[in-house]
Amino acid sequence: VVPVMLKALTYDEKRGACSVGSNVRDAACYVCWAFARAYEPAELIPFISHISSALVIAAVFDRDVNCRRAASAAFQENVGRQGTFPHGIDILTAADYFAVGNRVNCYLTISVYIAGFPEYTQPMIDHLVNMKINHWDSVIRELATKALHNITPQAPEYMANVVLPRLLPLSVGSDLHTRHGAILACAEITHALCKLARENNRSVTYYFSEKSLEGLKQIHQEVCSQHKSVCTLIEKLSLSKMPFRGDPIIGGWQWLINDSLRHLTLVSSAARQYIKECAVSALAALCNEFYTNERGEADPALQDELVTQYVSELQNAEEMIRCGFSRALGALPRFLLKGRLQQVLEGLKRVTIISPEDVSFAESRRDALIAIAKVCQTVGVKGDGSQQEYVCRDNVDQIYATLLTGVTDYTTDSRGDVGGWVREAAMSSLMEVTLLLVQNEAELINATICKQIMCWLAQQSAEKIDKFRAHAGSVFLTLLHFDHPPVPHIPHREELERIFPRWEKETLNWNAASEAFPRITQLLGLPAYQYHVLLGLSVSVGGLTETTLRYSAQSLFDYMKKIQSEPGALEGFCGTLLRVFEDNLRNDRVSVPLLTMLDQMLANGCFDMFTEQDNHPFPVKLFTLCKEEIRRSKDIRKLRSSIGVFCGLIQFQGDMREKVFFQLFLLLCHPFPIIRKTTASQLYEMLLTYGDVGDPAIVEQAMAILSDTNW
């Protein structure tokens, strides 16, 4: 029975898109559990080492949590009843029922502890090499290779002399899964062995034979299609400081990294990000290790070729190629950027500019903004330094201008608000660059730029999409409460710190509209923020999401109620509101929800203070803007929203009433039936509400026409 049971504990077979075997492995664990109850300890002595190792392997390395827990329970039963499993109590303490529930923890932490007991070290390594690096699930393959990295210090000689020679042929084999796992395993084991050698003051090649070194160099020539795993190998060999400086293999590795960045379009979106990250990490490690001379400087010819090539690829017609090379430029070390900083920044800036040909290239704009922040962090800050080498007085305004442009990206396509990716990256990059300057030379941040940053963040914090609102709020509070040293020139700092106390920085849930909007609307009382917050609120109050609409509208109405007794504050608010409308005429992203918000505000009596004044400039200007907004429009939502605004304007006194009625009568004759019907319905309700707009008999006759006609 025991040989069959041991085989069943590792049985796993893929059929179609899923695997079978978990029920078999679970049943095998039950058999092991039953053995502990059925036999005396002396009867199981010949099989103890096999059963204990198999159960430990299943408890730590099985893909399914129910099997890991079943193996842990069987191991516990054997330890309790038999008492013959090596180091049973110690292992049970580390790998109990709850501990094995987390797969990553099992592979990367618990396995290392158990491998420290010599009885289990080699069986665990052999299992990973024989069963897991070729597993059908890529997540298991990657976890297995990382586990091998962590376990290597427990058996370095075995890894170098047995495991690595076994993996090298597999890394150039025909099976895709095995090849992927073997390449990653070679990378991780090599890195671990070199690190161990350096810790023991030995040469990095101490554990490697000449054959092994040649085998590692040959991998990329045999399997160039396996981009992500070979890029990981390049990264690990570079970090291991292998003695390949000046070797032709370096040129091959550079070609492979570039090839990976050029072929991102050919893979699925899920794999794209992973390959890009692997290639960029490999590039950074390769450059740091092999592209410097003894003085830590770059070869001018190599630097010129690499930077010029990468910058030229930023204008490629393929979006994914732009993405890859943007991130690659962001990963270049300082010695390669020295003397070329302006060329790199200009190239990345061009990627962020929206043109008719690449309006949908939101991902490339996002990656360029991320790269700009990375480049700034790499080169550092020196106020009076050269703009070719540092972030300095000559280029800081250009950097900020590029990043601030990203916050205004509201591009939409079939995927939705793709501009949100750009805005999110721009906000993160603004924070990183600002904190970099603050901690080095804060005087480079002028008051105008700081005001722009905080105002744009406040606007994003008032908008409708929870994810981006939360990110903006987090960045806003980070800059506000940063004190090593504080960010200079933040407008209304004291008032902001009262609205957003420091102790709430981590607890305030910006994702929850019920928490975010009551706070952010308080910024309407601060002149520097009023315009941008009102612009953000317009989109939320006039939006379609019920929760966002409810809490944003209620917060706005609460603020309006508070300033009803302050004529100056109300006049200032109305002036800002008209400016928002005027600046966004025919911009449907803002103007349509703004009309809806105005309809609600008029219905809620937010402007009652002006209703008794003849020809007050606010309703006159508002009428003119609404009329201009809907001129020649065929947008039904916009037209219906404007009807509510026109009906709300009837409550104001003066000559404008006649113009408003005339506009409503035109809408009663609109070509669209839904507009005629909506106008008639809302006009009827308006006449019921404001019965004093004309002679009672005429009003009654008009209401009869409105109600009796089939509009």
TrEMBL record:
GO terms for cellular component: lateral plasma membrane. Signal peptide: none annotated. Keywords: Chaperone. InterPro entries: ARM-like, ARM-type_fold, ARM_TBCD_2nd, TBCD, TBCD_C. GO terms for molecular function: beta-tubulin binding; GTPase activator activity. Coiled coil: none annotated. Residues 451-638 form the Tubulin-folding cofactor D C-terminal domain. Transmembrane segments: none annotated. It comes from the Eukaryota. Residues 1-89 form the Tubulin-folding cofactor D ARM repeats domain. GO terms for biological process: adherens junction assembly; bicellular tight junction assembly; microtubule cytoskeleton organization; post-chaperonin tubulin folding pathway; tubulin complex assembly. This is Tubulin-specific chaperone D. The lineage of its organism: Eukaryota, Metazoa, Chordata, Craniata, Vertebrata. The gene is Tbcd.
